Protein backbone atom coordinates (compact mmCIF):
# COMPACT_ATOMS: atom_id res chain seq x y z
CA UNK A 1 0.00 0.00 0.00
CA UNK A 2 1.60 3.25 -1.17
CA UNK A 3 1.63 6.47 0.84
CA UNK A 4 -0.44 8.26 -1.82
CA UNK A 5 -3.07 5.52 -1.71
CA UNK A 6 -3.19 5.77 2.10
CA UNK A 7 -3.57 9.57 2.01
CA UNK A 8 -6.44 9.25 -0.46
CA UNK A 9 -8.14 6.60 1.64
CA UNK A 10 -7.81 8.64 4.83
CA UNK A 11 -9.14 11.79 3.14
CA UNK A 12 -12.17 9.94 1.83
CA UNK A 13 -12.78 8.29 5.22
CA UNK A 14 -12.69 11.70 6.91
CA UNK A 15 -15.38 13.06 4.62
CA UNK A 16 -17.54 9.97 4.92
CA UNK A 17 -17.50 10.41 8.69
CA UNK A 18 -18.13 14.16 8.53
CA UNK A 19 -21.02 13.89 6.10
CA UNK A 20 -22.76 10.77 7.41
CA UNK A 21 -21.72 10.37 11.06
CA UNK A 22 -21.98 13.91 12.47
CA UNK A 23 -25.77 14.17 12.78
CA UNK A 24 -26.01 15.54 9.22
CA UNK A 25 -24.86 18.88 10.61
CA UNK A 26 -24.39 20.33 7.14
CA UNK A 27 -28.11 20.18 6.33
CA UNK A 28 -28.87 22.78 9.02
CA UNK A 29 -32.03 20.99 10.13
CA UNK A 30 -32.13 22.55 13.60
CA UNK A 31 -33.81 25.93 13.14
CA UNK A 32 -35.92 28.11 15.36
CA UNK A 33 -39.01 27.60 13.19
CA UNK A 34 -38.97 23.83 13.65
CA UNK A 35 -41.76 22.26 15.68
CA UNK A 36 -41.64 22.55 19.46
CA UNK A 37 -41.92 19.09 21.01
CA UNK A 38 -43.48 18.88 24.50
CA UNK A 39 -41.27 17.19 27.07
CA UNK A 40 -43.16 14.88 29.42
CA UNK A 41 -46.31 16.97 29.36
CA UNK A 42 -48.99 17.80 26.80
CA UNK A 43 -50.10 21.21 25.66
CA UNK A 44 -48.46 24.56 25.23
CA UNK A 45 -47.80 27.38 27.62
CA UNK A 46 -50.78 28.24 29.82
CA UNK A 47 -52.76 31.22 28.61
CA UNK A 48 -54.02 32.36 32.00
CA UNK A 49 -52.65 32.86 35.49
CA UNK A 50 -51.19 29.84 37.21
CA UNK A 51 -52.21 29.08 40.78
CA UNK A 52 -50.86 31.70 43.11
CA UNK A 53 -49.44 33.68 40.23
CA UNK A 54 -46.67 31.10 39.72
CA UNK A 55 -45.63 29.64 36.37
CA UNK A 56 -44.50 26.10 35.80
CA UNK A 57 -42.13 25.86 38.73
CA UNK A 58 -40.79 29.37 38.17
CA UNK A 59 -41.53 32.47 40.18
CA UNK A 60 -42.97 34.70 37.49
CA UNK A 61 -45.93 36.94 38.29
CA UNK A 62 -47.14 37.57 34.74
CA UNK A 63 -49.97 35.09 34.12
CA UNK A 64 -48.66 31.93 32.54
CA UNK A 65 -45.55 33.51 31.10
CA UNK A 66 -42.26 33.65 33.03
CA UNK A 67 -40.49 36.93 33.63
CA UNK A 68 -37.40 37.70 31.56
CA UNK A 69 -34.52 40.15 31.90
CA UNK A 70 -32.32 40.81 28.88
CA UNK A 71 -28.65 41.39 29.75
CA UNK A 72 -26.57 43.31 27.20
CA UNK A 73 -22.81 43.82 27.74
CA UNK A 74 -21.79 46.74 25.54
CA UNK A 75 -18.42 48.28 24.78
CA UNK A 76 -18.30 50.93 22.07
CA UNK A 77 -21.38 49.74 20.19
CA UNK A 78 -22.66 53.11 18.96
CA UNK A 79 -23.14 51.89 15.39
CA UNK A 80 -25.96 49.50 16.17
CA UNK A 81 -27.08 49.80 19.78
CA UNK A 82 -30.14 51.94 18.95
CA UNK A 83 -31.47 49.31 16.55
CA UNK A 84 -30.76 46.56 19.08
CA UNK A 85 -32.63 48.32 21.89
CA UNK A 86 -35.52 49.13 19.57
CA UNK A 87 -35.82 45.47 18.55
CA UNK A 88 -35.86 44.35 22.18
CA UNK A 89 -38.47 46.94 23.03
CA UNK A 90 -40.62 45.75 20.11
CA UNK A 91 -40.89 42.17 21.38
CA UNK A 92 -44.48 40.91 21.45
CA UNK A 93 -43.77 38.83 24.56
CA UNK A 94 -46.88 38.58 26.80
CA UNK A 95 -44.88 38.35 30.02
CA UNK A 96 -42.68 40.80 31.91
CA UNK A 97 -39.54 41.90 30.06
CA UNK A 98 -36.85 44.17 31.45
CA UNK A 99 -33.62 45.22 29.76
CA UNK A 100 -30.29 45.82 31.47
CA UNK A 101 -27.41 47.27 29.47
CA UNK A 102 -23.98 47.25 31.10
CA UNK A 103 -21.79 49.95 29.58
CA UNK A 104 -18.29 48.48 29.70
CA UNK A 105 -16.15 51.59 29.46
CA UNK A 106 -17.55 52.89 26.17
CA UNK A 107 -16.26 56.21 24.89
CA UNK A 108 -18.54 56.55 21.86
CA UNK A 109 -21.84 57.44 23.54
CA UNK A 110 -23.24 53.91 23.57
CA UNK A 111 -25.17 54.43 26.82
CA UNK A 112 -26.82 57.70 25.72
CA UNK A 113 -27.82 56.21 22.37
CA UNK A 114 -29.39 53.24 24.16
CA UNK A 115 -31.39 55.50 26.48
CA UNK A 116 -32.60 57.62 23.59
CA UNK A 117 -33.65 54.54 21.61
CA UNK A 118 -35.63 53.22 24.58
CA UNK A 119 -37.38 56.54 25.09
CA UNK A 120 -38.21 56.86 21.39
CA UNK A 121 -39.56 53.34 21.01
CA UNK A 122 -42.43 53.80 23.47
CA UNK A 123 -41.89 50.25 24.66
CA UNK A 124 -43.24 48.98 27.95
CA UNK A 125 -39.98 47.10 28.53
CA UNK A 126 -37.94 49.05 31.08
CA UNK A 127 -34.32 49.81 30.21
CA UNK A 128 -31.69 50.17 32.92
CA UNK A 129 -28.22 51.34 31.93
CA UNK A 130 -25.42 50.44 34.33
CA UNK A 131 -21.95 51.93 34.27
CA UNK A 132 -19.65 48.95 34.42
CA UNK A 133 -17.13 48.66 37.24
CA UNK A 134 -13.42 48.40 36.55
CA UNK A 135 -12.49 45.00 35.17
CA UNK A 136 -11.76 42.55 37.97
CA UNK A 137 -8.68 40.30 37.80
CA UNK A 138 -9.37 36.84 36.43
CA UNK A 139 -12.39 37.88 34.33
CA UNK A 140 -12.83 38.47 30.64
CA UNK A 141 -14.39 41.81 29.86
CA UNK A 142 -17.67 40.51 28.49
CA UNK A 143 -18.32 38.09 31.34
CA UNK A 144 -17.50 40.71 33.96
CA UNK A 145 -20.13 42.96 32.39
CA UNK A 146 -22.64 40.10 32.20
CA UNK A 147 -22.05 39.29 35.87
CA UNK A 148 -22.89 42.86 36.86
CA UNK A 149 -26.04 42.79 34.77
CA UNK A 150 -27.20 39.53 36.33
CA UNK A 151 -26.47 40.80 39.83
CA UNK A 152 -28.64 43.84 39.16
CA UNK A 153 -31.43 41.71 37.69
CA UNK A 154 -31.49 39.51 40.78
CA UNK A 155 -31.94 42.37 43.21
CA UNK A 156 -35.31 42.57 44.88
CA UNK A 157 -37.88 39.99 45.92
CA UNK A 158 -38.84 38.82 42.43
CA UNK A 159 -35.79 38.00 40.32
CA UNK A 160 -36.53 37.01 36.72
CA UNK A 161 -37.23 33.41 35.75
CA UNK A 162 -35.08 33.68 32.66
CA UNK A 163 -32.01 35.66 31.70
CA UNK A 164 -31.77 36.59 28.03
CA UNK A 165 -28.05 37.00 27.41
CA UNK A 166 -27.65 38.89 24.16
CA UNK A 167 -24.84 40.69 22.40
CA UNK A 168 -25.00 44.40 21.68
CA UNK A 169 -24.96 43.86 17.92
CA UNK A 170 -27.93 41.45 17.64
CA UNK A 171 -31.35 42.69 16.49
CA UNK A 172 -34.47 40.55 16.76
CA UNK A 173 -37.78 39.94 15.06
CA UNK A 174 -40.75 40.83 17.35
CA UNK A 175 -41.72 37.21 18.06
CA UNK A 176 -38.23 36.00 18.98
CA UNK A 177 -38.56 36.02 22.78
CA UNK A 178 -41.99 34.43 22.69
CA UNK A 179 -40.59 31.58 20.62
CA UNK A 180 -37.53 31.20 22.86
CA UNK A 181 -39.62 30.96 26.02
CA UNK A 182 -42.16 28.65 24.38
CA UNK A 183 -39.39 26.21 23.46
CA UNK A 184 -37.71 26.47 26.86
CA UNK A 185 -40.96 25.86 28.76
CA UNK A 186 -42.54 23.28 26.49
CA UNK A 187 -39.41 21.21 25.92
CA UNK A 188 -38.05 21.82 29.43
CA UNK A 189 -34.77 23.30 28.24
CA UNK A 190 -32.48 25.13 30.66
CA UNK A 191 -30.81 26.91 27.74
CA UNK A 192 -32.21 27.89 24.34
CA UNK A 193 -29.71 29.56 22.02
CA UNK A 194 -29.94 30.94 18.51
CA UNK A 195 -27.05 31.14 16.09
CA UNK A 196 -27.66 34.67 14.90
CA UNK A 197 -27.51 35.17 11.16
CA UNK A 198 -24.30 37.04 10.54
CA UNK A 199 -24.13 39.91 8.09
CA UNK A 200 -23.31 38.63 4.60
CA UNK A 201 -23.20 41.60 2.24
CA UNK A 202 -19.60 42.56 1.47
CA UNK A 203 -17.31 40.45 -0.71
CA UNK A 204 -15.36 39.35 2.35
CA UNK A 205 -18.52 38.33 4.21
CA UNK A 206 -19.90 36.34 1.28
CA UNK A 207 -16.59 34.55 0.93
CA UNK A 208 -15.91 33.63 4.56
CA UNK A 209 -18.96 34.05 6.81
CA UNK A 210 -20.92 30.95 5.64
CA UNK A 211 -17.79 28.90 6.27
CA UNK A 212 -17.55 30.25 9.80
CA UNK A 213 -21.01 28.86 10.59
CA UNK A 214 -20.28 25.64 8.68
CA UNK A 215 -17.16 24.95 10.73
CA UNK A 216 -19.02 25.70 13.96
CA UNK A 217 -21.74 23.21 12.98
CA UNK A 218 -19.06 20.66 12.15
CA UNK A 219 -17.38 21.06 15.54
CA UNK A 220 -20.66 21.07 17.47
CA UNK A 221 -23.37 19.25 15.50
CA UNK A 222 -26.58 20.93 16.62
CA UNK A 223 -28.44 17.61 16.62
CA UNK A 224 -26.05 16.28 19.26
CA UNK A 225 -26.13 19.51 21.24
CA UNK A 226 -29.91 19.22 21.41
CA UNK A 227 -29.84 15.52 22.33
CA UNK A 228 -29.96 15.16 26.10
CA UNK A 229 -28.28 11.77 25.74
CA UNK A 230 -25.21 13.27 24.08
CA UNK A 231 -22.29 14.90 25.87
CA UNK A 232 -21.81 17.45 23.08
CA UNK A 233 -22.68 20.92 24.35
CA UNK A 234 -22.45 24.37 22.84
CA UNK A 235 -24.27 27.67 22.53
CA UNK A 236 -24.12 30.82 20.43
CA UNK A 237 -23.25 33.77 22.64
CA UNK A 238 -25.23 36.32 20.65
CA UNK A 239 -28.56 34.95 21.88
CA UNK A 240 -28.97 32.69 24.90
CA UNK A 241 -32.13 32.31 26.99
CA UNK A 242 -31.00 30.86 30.31
CA UNK A 243 -33.01 29.41 33.17
CA UNK A 244 -31.81 31.54 36.07
CA UNK A 245 -32.16 28.82 38.68
CA UNK A 246 -30.30 26.30 36.51
CA UNK A 247 -27.49 28.81 36.04
CA UNK A 248 -27.24 29.27 39.79
CA UNK A 249 -27.07 25.49 40.30
CA UNK A 250 -24.30 25.30 37.71
CA UNK A 251 -22.18 27.80 39.64
CA UNK A 252 -23.32 31.01 37.97
CA UNK A 253 -21.35 33.12 35.55
CA UNK A 254 -18.49 33.04 38.06
CA UNK A 255 -17.86 29.41 37.09
CA UNK A 256 -16.77 30.45 33.59
CA UNK A 257 -15.35 33.88 34.41
CA UNK A 258 -12.02 33.23 32.64
CA UNK A 259 -13.43 31.44 29.60
CA UNK A 260 -12.42 33.19 26.40
CA UNK A 261 -15.09 31.29 24.47
CA UNK A 262 -17.80 31.78 27.03
CA UNK A 263 -20.86 30.60 25.07
CA UNK A 264 -19.65 27.02 24.63
CA UNK A 265 -18.36 26.98 28.19
CA UNK A 266 -21.79 28.06 29.43
CA UNK A 267 -23.45 25.43 27.24
CA UNK A 268 -21.35 22.72 28.85
CA UNK A 269 -22.09 23.96 32.37
CA UNK A 270 -25.83 24.15 31.76
CA UNK A 271 -26.09 20.77 30.07
CA UNK A 272 -25.15 19.26 33.43
CA UNK A 273 -28.40 20.77 34.76
CA UNK A 274 -30.78 19.75 31.98
CA UNK A 275 -31.29 19.68 28.23
CA UNK A 276 -30.23 22.54 26.01
CA UNK A 277 -31.11 23.62 22.46
CA UNK A 278 -29.19 25.39 19.71
CA UNK A 279 -30.41 26.24 16.23
CA UNK A 280 -30.03 28.47 13.21
CA UNK A 281 -32.27 31.50 12.91
CA UNK A 282 -33.46 34.25 10.59
CA UNK A 283 -35.04 36.08 13.55
CA UNK A 284 -31.78 37.00 15.27
CA UNK A 285 -29.55 39.04 12.98
CA UNK A 286 -26.07 40.39 13.63
CA UNK A 287 -25.56 44.03 12.67
CA UNK A 288 -21.78 43.89 12.89
CA UNK A 289 -20.11 44.54 9.54
CA UNK A 290 -17.04 42.66 8.32
CA UNK A 291 -16.30 44.73 5.25
CA UNK A 292 -12.70 43.55 4.84
CA UNK A 293 -11.11 40.12 4.97
CA UNK A 294 -8.95 41.36 7.83
CA UNK A 295 -12.09 42.05 9.89
CA UNK A 296 -13.04 38.37 9.62
CA UNK A 297 -9.46 37.30 10.24
CA UNK A 298 -9.43 39.21 13.52
CA UNK A 299 -12.73 37.62 14.54
CA UNK A 300 -11.32 34.14 13.91
CA UNK A 301 -7.87 34.57 15.43
CA UNK A 302 -9.36 36.00 18.61
CA UNK A 303 -10.32 32.51 19.77
CA UNK A 304 -9.04 29.88 17.31
CA UNK A 305 -6.00 28.93 19.41
CA UNK A 306 -8.21 28.69 22.50
CA UNK A 307 -10.11 25.96 20.62
CA UNK A 308 -6.86 23.98 20.79
CA UNK A 309 -6.36 24.67 24.49
CA UNK A 310 -3.25 26.70 23.60
CA UNK A 311 -1.41 23.47 22.71
CA UNK A 312 1.38 23.58 20.08
CA UNK A 313 0.96 19.83 19.57
CA UNK A 314 -2.75 20.21 18.85
CA UNK A 315 -1.96 23.11 16.55
CA UNK A 316 0.43 20.95 14.54
CA UNK A 317 -2.13 18.14 14.41
CA UNK A 318 -4.82 20.56 13.29
CA UNK A 319 -2.69 21.91 10.45
CA UNK A 320 -1.95 18.36 9.27
CA UNK A 321 -5.63 17.42 9.58
CA UNK A 322 -6.76 20.46 7.61
CA UNK A 323 -4.31 19.64 4.81
CA UNK A 324 -5.54 16.04 4.65
CA UNK A 325 -9.16 17.18 4.71
CA UNK A 326 -9.20 20.16 2.34
CA UNK A 327 -6.03 20.07 0.22
CA UNK A 328 -5.12 16.43 -0.35
CA UNK A 329 -8.46 15.39 -1.93
CA UNK A 330 -8.28 18.18 -4.51
CA UNK A 331 -4.67 17.46 -5.46
CA UNK A 332 -5.33 13.74 -5.76
CA UNK A 333 -8.47 14.28 -7.84
CA UNK A 334 -6.58 16.56 -10.23
CA UNK A 335 -3.25 14.81 -10.58
CA UNK A 336 -3.61 11.12 -9.69
CA UNK A 337 -5.06 8.67 -12.19
CA UNK A 338 -5.05 5.65 -9.91
CA UNK A 339 -7.24 4.58 -6.95
CA UNK A 340 -6.04 7.51 -4.84
CA UNK A 341 -7.38 9.89 -7.45
CA UNK A 342 -10.80 8.22 -7.27
CA UNK A 343 -10.76 8.49 -3.50
CA UNK A 344 -9.87 12.17 -3.81
CA UNK A 345 -12.66 12.85 -6.30
CA UNK A 346 -15.22 11.17 -4.06
CA UNK A 347 -13.97 13.16 -1.07
CA UNK A 348 -14.22 16.41 -3.06
CA UNK A 349 -17.78 15.53 -4.05
CA UNK A 350 -18.79 14.99 -0.43
CA UNK A 351 -16.98 18.17 0.60
CA UNK A 352 -18.76 20.37 -1.89
CA UNK A 353 -22.16 18.76 -1.34
CA UNK A 354 -21.90 19.40 2.40
CA UNK A 355 -20.98 23.06 1.95
CA UNK A 356 -23.83 23.94 -0.41
CA UNK A 357 -26.72 24.11 2.12
CA UNK A 358 -25.14 26.86 4.23
CA UNK A 359 -24.64 28.88 1.05
CA UNK A 360 -28.36 28.57 0.34
CA UNK A 361 -29.17 29.55 3.93
CA UNK A 362 -27.27 32.79 3.33
CA UNK A 363 -29.09 33.24 0.02
CA UNK A 364 -25.96 32.66 -2.04
CA UNK A 365 -25.45 30.35 -4.98
CA UNK A 366 -24.73 26.72 -4.00
CA UNK A 367 -22.04 26.80 -6.69
CA UNK A 368 -19.95 28.83 -4.24
CA UNK A 369 -19.30 25.55 -2.45
CA UNK A 370 -16.37 24.99 -4.82
CA UNK A 371 -14.44 27.57 -2.79
CA UNK A 372 -14.32 25.40 0.35
CA UNK A 373 -10.82 23.93 -0.26
CA UNK A 374 -9.36 27.43 -0.57
CA UNK A 375 -11.36 28.65 2.43
CA UNK A 376 -10.06 25.69 4.43
CA UNK A 377 -6.49 26.79 3.66
CA UNK A 378 -7.25 30.38 4.71
CA UNK A 379 -8.80 29.27 8.01
CA UNK A 380 -5.76 27.07 8.64
CA UNK A 381 -3.48 30.08 8.19
CA UNK A 382 -5.69 32.10 10.52
CA UNK A 383 -5.50 29.36 13.15
CA UNK A 384 -1.69 29.51 13.05
CA UNK A 385 -1.94 33.31 13.21
CA UNK A 386 -4.09 32.97 16.33
CA UNK A 387 -1.34 30.97 18.00
CA UNK A 388 1.28 33.53 16.96
CA UNK A 389 -0.83 36.36 18.40
CA UNK A 390 -1.11 34.43 21.65
CA UNK A 391 2.64 33.86 21.83
CA UNK A 392 3.12 37.60 21.28
CA UNK A 393 0.86 38.41 24.23
CA UNK A 394 -2.02 39.61 22.07
CA UNK A 395 -4.27 36.57 22.22
CA UNK A 396 -8.02 37.03 22.48
CA UNK A 397 -7.86 40.65 21.33
CA UNK A 398 -11.26 42.36 21.52
CA UNK A 399 -12.06 46.05 21.80
CA UNK A 400 -8.55 46.90 22.98
CA UNK A 401 -8.17 44.02 25.45
CA UNK A 402 -5.93 40.98 25.14
CA UNK A 403 -7.71 38.23 27.06
CA UNK A 404 -6.07 34.90 26.23
CA UNK A 405 -4.74 32.26 28.61
CA UNK A 406 -2.20 33.38 31.23
CA UNK A 407 -2.73 37.04 30.32
CA UNK A 408 -4.82 39.33 32.46
CA UNK A 409 -7.13 41.35 30.19
CA UNK A 410 -5.11 44.47 29.47
CA UNK A 411 -5.76 47.73 27.71
CA UNK A 412 -4.01 48.15 24.35
CA UNK A 413 -3.44 51.55 22.80
CA UNK A 414 -2.21 52.37 19.30
CA UNK A 415 -1.34 48.76 18.56
CA UNK A 416 1.05 48.40 21.50
CA UNK A 417 0.47 45.52 23.91
CA UNK A 418 0.76 46.26 27.61
CA UNK A 419 2.12 43.55 29.86
CA UNK A 420 -0.53 42.30 32.25
CA UNK A 421 -0.76 40.16 35.34
CA UNK A 422 -1.14 36.42 35.02
CA UNK A 423 -4.56 34.99 35.72
CA UNK A 424 -4.36 31.35 34.63
CA UNK A 425 -7.32 31.54 32.26
CA UNK A 426 -8.50 28.45 30.43
CA UNK A 427 -9.61 28.32 26.82
CA UNK A 428 -12.81 26.75 25.61
CA UNK A 429 -13.97 25.72 22.12
CA UNK A 430 -15.06 28.05 19.33
CA UNK A 431 -15.24 27.75 15.58
Automatic annotation (TrEMBL):
<feature type="transmembrane region" description="Helical">
    <location>
        <begin position="368"/>
        <end position="388"/>
    </location>
</feature>
<feature type="region of interest" description="Disordered">
    <location>
        <begin position="412"/>
        <end position="431"/>
    </location>
</feature>
<dbReference type="InterPro" id="IPR017832">
    <property type="entry name" value="Glyco_trans_2_hopen-assoc_HpnB"/>
</dbReference>
<dbReference type="InterPro" id="IPR001173">
    <property type="entry name" value="Glyco_trans_2-like"/>
</dbReference>
<dbReference type="InterPro" id="IPR029044">
    <property type="entry name" value="Nucleotide-diphossugar_trans"/>
</dbReference>
<keyword id="KW-0472">Membrane</keyword>
<keyword id="KW-0812">Transmembrane</keyword>
<dbReference type="Pfam" id="PF00535">
    <property type="entry name" value="Glycos_transf_2"/>
</dbReference>
<feature type="domain" description="Glycosyltransferase 2-like">
    <location>
        <begin position="70"/>
        <end position="248"/>
    </location>
</feature>
<feature type="transmembrane region" description="Helical">
    <location>
        <begin position="313"/>
        <end position="335"/>
    </location>
</feature>
<keyword id="KW-1133">Transmembrane helix</keyword>
<feature type="transmembrane region" description="Helical">
    <location>
        <begin position="342"/>
        <end position="362"/>
    </location>
</feature>
<protein>
    <submittedName>
        <fullName>Hopene-associated glycosyltransferase HpnB</fullName>
    </submittedName>
</protein>
